[in-house]
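Lab notebook, bench 4. Still working through the backlog of constructs that have no structural model yet. Next entry is a single chain of 144 residues. Request: give me the structure tokens for it.
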Amino acid sequence: MDYLSSLNISGSGLTAQKLRMDVISQNIANAGVTRTESGAPYRRKMVVLSSINGDSFRDILNRTTAVKAGGVQVRSIVEDKSELVPVYNPNHPDADEEGYVMLPNVNTAQEMIDMMGASRSYEANVTTFNATKSMILKALEIGR
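Model written out:
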């Protein structure tokens, strides 16, 4: 594996984790939205990540180093189909005839945990990128 493919792997991880943090931020911001443009309450969104070449870690590990490295890609952003949260609030404009308002299926505590995980993954990719960059610079100094 060459140095540039290592940088590409880290770069793809940085891009994917940034998008994941953006989607989590959107979920937190819309945690109280009871009516979107479609008229329904906001639904939590999740980022689905996959390997660029679709192989398992074991398959990649068993291959020779001549194989181009992959990385990570965002496969899709999907809506969480779990149940919305009914809350009794008869004074709310979106309340039904029984006085219940359907709130989004966003759990802010879970979103914060996911945000910390995405942030740690982002930091790990930055560290890997910087280590690879440092190795490249050290390799260039050998020829002096």
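Notes after review: Residues 3-142 form one domain. The beta strands are 45-51, 72-79, 85-88, 100-103. Flag for follow-up if needed.
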